[in-house]
Amino acid sequence: MKRKSSSQESPLVLVVDDDDSIRMLLRETMERYDLSVAEAGSGAEALSVFSTLKPELVILDVVMPRMDGFETCARLRRLPGGEATPVLMLTGLDDLESVDKAYEAGATDFASKPLKWLALGHRVRYMLRAKRAMDDLRTSESRLATAQRIARLGNWERDLDAGTVECSDEMYQIFGIAPQPAGARYECFLERVHPEDRHVVVGAVEDAIRRGQPYSTDHRILMPDGTVRFVHEQAEILPDQAGRPALIVGTTQDITERKQAEEQIRFLADYDSLTHLPNRRLFKERLESVLASARRHKRLVATLFMDLDHFKRINDTLGHSAGDKLLQEVAERLRCRIRPTDAIARGDPREPDEPLARLGGDEFVLSIIDITRGEDAARVALRILEVLKDHFVLEGHEVFITASIGISVYPSDGEDVEALLKNADTAMYHAKSAGRNRYQFYDGSMNSSASHRLSMETGLRRAIERDELVLHYQPQFDVRDGSIVGAEALVRWKHPELGLVPPADFIPLAEETGLIVPIGEWVLCKAFHQSRAWHRDGFGSLRIAVNLSGHQLQPGFVRMLEELIRTAGFNPSFLELEITESVFMQRAEETVGMLNDLKSMGLRISIDDFGTGYSSLSYLKRFPVDTLKIDRSFVRDVATHPDDAAITVAIIAMARSLELETIAEGVETREQLVFLQQQGCSLMQGFLLGRPVPAEEFTRALRKNAAEMSPGVPM
Ligand code: C2E
Ligand code: MG
Ligand code: MG
User: Fold this and answer.
1) Which sign does the torsion angle of CA 15, 16, 22, 24 carry?
2) d(Cα 69, Cα 141) in Å, to the nearest integer?
3) Candidates 1.10.645.10, 3.30.450.20, 3.40.50.150, 3.40.50.12280; correct CATH number of 152-260?
4) Maximum Cα–Cα distance for the chain, whole Å?
5) Residue 631 exposed, middle or buried by CB count within 10 Å (0-12, 13-18, 19+)
6) Is the CB of 231 inside a 6 Å radius of any atom of ligand 1?
7) Using CB atoms within 10 A as the burial measure, which of 257, 352, 361, 550 is most buried?
8) The whole model's pTM is what?
């Protein structure tokens, strides 16, 4: 085997002849045409050279000893790559039998000896060019098939006279039809078209044929296994020479995935994924059109804005998945038990005129179309409250939930969607502050208080980071010796415009918004540091009382408190947590456990505003409490009203029997002081003895008090 290549690029031709001189002449001829040449002197050698060098063309002599050219050609065709390589056979002159045999053996062409060298060179080059063209065609066909497979795109040609369709493999794939080499009947494809869409497709095709125009349709196909796929079909009509429609040539693309993605996107854009109710966007859009029609027909439309009461508690105590479940079940109850009876649903059942939506969080909204009077909306609101009354079961727990509902009515409470929603929301807030589990109609005077509330809420959120909160301290005295035994920390908000805001004006808002948690943490931290400073200053036995909101008593509170105490290096035995009586009453079970945990840290617990919350004696025994703070309302009138005096006396006696300490708060007069002391309550707090003051002022009061207590000892 010899190979000489003039250039790596030039095509390689394998010359096979047992005659050395012929081979040499062939080589010279080929090289003159810029072709590279490899040689083989026998059939066997030819096969091995072919396998290793993969020539682009083979010139093969017919007459060779052992393996002749026919056999060599036939075997070469079976080698990898051999089937597409052009083979030029060299036969004897006009040996027709050989020519036939050569074609049978797979030859591409033949040339008879004696050879015409110049023509042979041209012929070889021509054969190479044809081979390249074939190669290119094959590559592009396979690329096209791959592209069609990836794009799930099939192409086809329908013969209108014969009623057959010739198509690509992908077309069969898409329709789930077995490929048929001679083409399939058009009916096979039409059968697959979804029965509901068939008339659309047939109509489009007939119309296109009649007008000689292209057409395109989107339709469904029904697969044998019952699944439905979406396709996009596009085609044009080709006429025969007489101008009659003869062929339809087109493509069909499987667009199922795209359709599903589109539907998913549409769903996500318009519906809430948790409850599958319409979301705010879709609700607004629908209410918009409802209002347009109400405007034309001069009708009323009510918007009910509903917010679950204390929903956050469910999330906090049972976890977010329970919270999600509750929202789903609330949605389900509203959907099944409110809509069909009370609100007017009509139209296409697949796309109901859904008047219910979830706006986010625990907020739902319902519009009621065509009411005649506002009371119709109230009836629906009452029904919602009724429907929520049955308990929910969440992860094995029985849970009860109520809701607050605000109602605005078109056109009196707003002309457009935004105004109606905003005003229903405002009314809902009023329902909340009126005690929850109720509905409230909007009333124009609500707006100013709503915007005030909003600006307070925004301001309060920033109050901590802007360092606008301050603590004042009010002294607690033991009137037996006149000493200051404790300080109650009372928070104030130094509002940039409103000045010093008292806690009563922002603590309820902080509780409603959850801001009480960070605020409460700040108060505790500040109080611990201040208390430590006083201890270091020599007031080593001073107690510090800190007020706690019921909203702060959440899982994690005990751990947070431990951490705060540890980092402040504070001794918890000086801490008294004041918790209002109502907290004990509302969540007795939860509270007992948590209070026990707190107590075990070594701190003290007092019941604030005692006497206002109707606690019974038996209740008190269950709680690990140290102190009762007698509410100011009793103290105020002890000296003048016999009833209040009697209650106060009873509280003090009861506390004594339970071995609890009592502190009287709000002592403003000497008479009150004397009365209380006579009854055995000697710990007191009130304007008579000292108002809440900033820390520095309190320090001065402490120094003064200590000086009075032990004359001669300088502080
Ligand atoms: P409270 O715990 O019962 O606090 C006593 C309130 O009575 C204080 O009002 C105090 O200034 C006032 N007071 C004390 N002595 C007298 C008196 O002789 N006469 C009259 N008329 N009032 C007196 P303040 O500071 O406005 O606090 C009101 C309530 O705000 C507190 O009632 C407490 O429930 C709450 N609060 C204050 N600070 C905090 C806090 O840091 N966290 C929480 N959760 N609540 C707080
Ligand atoms: Mg208090
Ligand atoms: Mg109090």
Assistant:
1) positive
2) 33
3) 3.30.450.20
4) 147
5) buried
6) no
7) 550
8) 0.48
pLDDT exceeds cutoff 60 at 56: yes
Residue ranges covered by each domain of the chain? 3-146, 152-260, 274-444, 457-707
The confidence score (pLDDT) of residue 235 equals 95
What span, in angstroms and rounded, lies between the C-alpha atoms of 663 and 685? 7
Question: 608: Cβ below 6 Å to ligand 1?
Answer: yes
Pocket test for ligand 1, best of 507, 515, 610, 631 (most atoms within 8 A of CB): 507
Of 89-103, 170-184, 673-687, the poorest mean pLDDT is in 89-103
CA distance 682 to 481: 9
Mean per-residue pLDDT over the chain, rounded = 89
Atom number of ligand 1 nearest to Cα 520: 42
Of all atoms in ligand 1, which is nearest to the CA of residue 523? 41
Nearest residue CA, atom 15 of ligand 1? 686
Give tens-digit pLDDT for 361-414: 999 999 998 788 888 899 999 999 999 999 999 888 888 899 999 999 999 999
pLDDT, residue 616, reads 60
Identify residues whose C-beta is under 5 A from ligand 2, the ion. 547, 578, 608
Q: Is the CB of 508 inside a 6 Å radius of any atom of ligand 1?
A: no
What is the CATH T-level fold of the domain 3-146, as seen in this structure? Rossmann fold (3.40.50)
Q: Point out the ligand 1 atom lying closest to the alpha carbon of residue 471.
A: 41
Whether the CB-CB separation of 156 and 252 falls below 8 Å is answered with: yes
User: Does 476 have pLDDT greater than 90?
Assistant: yes
Say which CATH topology domain 457-707 has.
TIM Barrel (3.20.20)
* 459: three-class secondary structure by DSSP: helix
Provide the pLDDT for residue 445: 77
Closest approach atom of ligand 1 to CA 516: 44
Q: Is the CB of 491 under 6 A from ligand 1?
A: yes
What pLDDT score was predicted for residue 348? 34
User: Hey, how many other C-beta atoms are within 10 angstroms of the C-beta on 337?
Assistant: 15
Identical topology for domains 3-146 and 274-444: no
CATH topology of domain 274-444: Alpha-Beta Plaits (3.30.70)
- 117 pLDDT band, cuts 50/70/90, is confident
